[in-house]
Amino acid sequence: MNRIDALEVEADRRRAEFAASLRRLRQKLTPLGLADEGLRLIDPQAQAVDAVGQSLRKNPLPAIPLLLGLGWLVLNARQPSKPARPQKLKRTRRALITSQKKELQNENDDQKT
User: Fold this and answer.
1) N or C: which terminus of the chain has fewer CB atoms within 10 Å of its end residue's CB?
2) What is the mean pLDDT for each group of 10 consecutive residues in the chain (113 residues)?
3) Which residues contact 32 (CB under 8 A, 6 or more apart)?
4) First CA to last CA across the chain, in angstroms?
């Protein structure tokens, strides 16, 4: 084997190592991978996760309202929000005349004092 062949073999080996490390890095940079890494930093032996899992297996009823609330939140977040329309004022002619009379009385009272 000559020197160029040895260099090509070395380049192929390093390329394969680089591709493998790139795949591992991609897996870590997914949202689940980042969450998993964060949980491992907080609780390396996963004792808290095991404790929560055991608690939920023993007592699943308290988790039901939480899951329902999260489901409701997700469903509402997926629906497009409707713009709020201002309510129309329902004023009859009589109500309009009455309000004008009250304004005139208030102005007259203000002028008298």
Assistant:
1) C
2) 88 95 86 81 79 85 87 84 66 66 78 69
3) none
4) 114
Q: What whole-number distance in Å separates Cα of residue 8 and Cα of residue 4?
A: 6
Triad 43, 47, 49: Cα angle to 5°? 85
Please tell me the distance from the alpha carbon of residue 92 to that of residue 20, in angstroms, as a whole number. 77
pTM: 0.33
Tokens of 66: 């939480």
Determine the Cα–Cα distance for residues 63 and 88; give it in Å rounded to an integer.
43
d(CA 36, CA 46): 10
